[in-house]
Amino acid sequence: MRKAKVFRETNETKIKLEINLDGTGYSEINVPFPFLKHMLENFSKHSFCDLYLKAQGDIEVDMHHLIEDIGIVLGQAIDNALGNKQGIERYGFFILPMDETLVEVSLDLSGRPYFIWQGFPKFINFLGYEFDIWREFFKSLAFFGKFNLHINLRYGQNIHHIIEATFKAFARSFKIAKTISSLEIPSTKGNL
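and the corresponding structure tokens:
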């Protein structure tokens, strides 16, 4: 089983996370932001990863530190759980519709972090917080997970739908990429 545990404590956040990449989509998530809990449950359910998370942070400031640091910890856990990546598909791609919204996610579990975020609204608030915290979450996830992640909003109007479709499209892409399909490391270099 490909599993990992990561603990992170700073002056701003305290996070404990466990992931099982070969799970069933079960999650136990304890965070002080119900919408974030809902998004992480969607990630778990649609990626077929079991996810256990307990996190707290300086939410009296805002949600930025907590959401960004959860992205860091989830990325570290994914990288640790993937190990040497022997036999994985490596690449994942998914286009996900949610009502009026369409989100496209492509990723490569290459060991080389890169992040693209295009087509999303700027300088708006959602539930009283800056929308840009979601870009920070996925950027941290990609860089600490050591993978290429390209996320494009093709179109959409409802902010809830846009964020939820992004989490689900990422989850479905990751589900494809983490799948074991051979005994080989999927690179001509011989390692990732």
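(Above: one complete record from the training split.) The mean pLDDT is 95.
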